[in-house]
Design goal:
Length: about 90
Amino acid sequence: MKTMGLTESQLLDLISGRLQVSLQQIQGRMTSCDPLPDVLPELGVEIAKIMAAAIHANNLKCAEQAEYLGSDTSARQVYDHLSACIDGY
């Protein structure tokens, strides 16, 4: 079965771009006296948002591709493929 969803490079571009913006925003708000442990929870939330956005974008692409493929690909095949991809990481 052909790989569905965004390519690995597309996902990496999406994640790294959003992560860079988030880090720049956090860095811009930090003062020189802010300890790193105070910023880590915010960074964790930003990373979670970025991953959720990447998963959502990938799901949309998978749905689009499954619709395009029509009856050639069953919902079970798409689910099995996505599960295998997730298990791979």
